[in-house]
Amino acid sequence: MTASQALIQYKGRDISEKLFRADKTFIGSKSERVQSSQSMSSRIFIEFVALIVRNRIYNLLKEQMLRMEARQKYLTVPAAIRELEKIEMVRRNGGTYKLDHAVTKTQKIILSSFGLDADSVSSSAEEISKLLATSQSLMNQEVPDDGEEEIN
Question: Where are the domains of the chain?
Answer without folding.
Answer: 1-71, 88-145
